[in-house]
Design goal:
alpha+beta, BirA Bifunctional Protein, domain 2, Rossmann fold, 2 domains, nine-stranded mixed beta sheet, 10 helices, 23 strands, elongated, binds zinc ion
């Protein structure tokens, strides 16, 4: 991708209402743009990261046999009345009347629709268990939206639902998803710990949130220094400094909540009559679980945990491009042509090797501006081609996360990027 044609220019100015570092950096770098309160466009680079995160989630769920589907956002009021959530879910649904005076809701979650699918397709114990998920747009009628992608009114969520014959079968699947979530966060460059949470208006009686450790996080959590105990500070007894599980010292961390998983039991299958006939010929309500991750919120959380004073630092696995090629200018026309040609050759070699690269071909930007923008945009590898490096048939190679600069032969840069 040539930077001169990229939709989404960098800016020196922070958004006026910014409350979080991810909001400031994602806006200034041209990854996102606000349309109205709590509603954002993902510009091409933001969308690339979003897709990379989606694909990590897909890989981790597909390997467990979860099936991807797509359910509608427009939903009839009567289905939500069956679960008794039409007027009680918090935050409330966006609601409106169509031209035939039918009342419709814009969904913030899909328990009702997936349970309706289950009651149509599940009849016997032989149809269970199964799990299905989607990566789809949700709407939340929030009272107040803040912090860029951390709290929004329209967003893309991965929501997974599982269906079981027994509580024991749900328990096994729930633990498998907990482990899959740990891998998803780790692959996105985040340290996350599961914490017991309240089930809110999704319901059920057992749930975990994932606390992503971030110095800018608003939640305070307590972590055990020796076992896997972790809890939100608010839920703990005052002044508790040792682990209730093993007695070791507790440490405090700031965190951002991201991802919530629930054992729903029969909260939806009973009122919606989603049943199956068991091995003894008895009709039973299906046992359910549900498991969410807000993809944009996860993207913002990555930046809350991976940045410095100059900009974002994308982990290689989800970066919009792996490399950033920056040819410097020269006042000597012949040298300038050689720099441009060598830089383009490198770009084409990386491109044909399947390595996604951003090429800073802007002729109106100074070297200083190009370096500043490269730090802000935060691609994992920066390769500078200049008169000086070309004299050694080389490029200046630097990782975004490190200060160290190496002069490497162009062919070695290619092999390094391929490995
Ligand atoms: Zn402990």
């Amino acid at each position: 991708m040539f930077q001169s044609t990229l939709l989404g220019k960098t800016s020196k100015h922070s958004p006026r209402d910014a409350e979080s570092i991810s909001h400031i950096l994602l806006t200034r770098s041209g990854y996102i743009q606000q349309l109205m309160s709590g509603v954002y466009s993902l510009l091409p680079m933001g969308f690339r990261v979003h897709k990379n995160i989606e694909n990590i989630i897909r890989e981790e769920l597909n390997i467990l046999g979860c099936q991807e589907l797509l359910m509608p956002s427009l939903q009839p009021a009567n289905l939500w009345m069956e679960s008794n959530r039409w007027d009680t879910i918090d935050p409330p649904l966006f609601k409106f009347e169509d031209r035939h005076k039918k009342i419709i809701g814009l969904a913030s979650t899909h328990e009702e629709v997936i349970t309706d699918l289950a009651r149509t397709h599940v009849h016997s114990y032989r149809d269970l268990p199964f799990s299905a998920y989607q990566i789809q747009t949700k709407f939340r009628n929030e009272m107040r939206s803040t912090s860029g992608l951390l709290r929004v009114r329209e967003f893309i969520m991965k929501d997974l639902y599982s269906f079981h014959r027994t509580e024991e079968d749900l328990d096994i699947f729930y633990e498998a998803i907990k482990a899959a979530y740990a891998r998803i966060y780790q692959r996105c460059g985040i340290r996350a710990v599961p914490i017991r949470a309240s089930s809110g208006s999704i319901g059920g009686n057992f749930s975990h949130e994932f606390a992503c450790i971030a110095p800018t996080g608003e939640d305070k959590i307590a972590l055990c220094s020796s076992c896997d105990f972790a809890a939100n500070f608010e839920t703990m007894e005052q002044g508790q400094t040792v682990c209730p599980q093993c007695g070791a010292v507790l440490t405090t961390e700031s965190a951002i909540e991201n991802g919530h998983i629930f054992k729903l039991g029969t909260k939806y299958s009973e009122p919606l009559h989603a049943t199956f006939v068991n091995e003894d010929g008895i009709k039973k309500p299906i046992i359910m679980g549900c498991y969410g991750i807000g993809v944009g919120r996860l993207l913002a959380t990555v930046i809350e945990t991976n940045h410095d004073e100059n900009g974002m630092i994308w982990p290689v696995a989800i970066a919009p491009f792996a490399a950033h090629i920056i040819p410097l200018t020269s006042s000597d026309d012949a040298i300038q042509t050689r720099i441009s040609n060598e830089a383009k050759k490198l770009y084409e070699t990386l491109f044909s090797a399947g390595i996604e690269t951003l090429f800073d071909d802007r002729s109106d930007a100074t070297a200083g501006e190009k370096f500043k923008d490269a730090d802000l945009i935060g691609l994992p590898h920066r390769i500078v081609i200049s008169e000086k490096t070309l004299a050694q048939d080389s490029g200046e190679w630097k990782e975004r996360a490190s200060k160290e600069i190496k002069i490497l032969r162009l062919s070695d840069i290619v092999s390094l990027m391929k490995s």
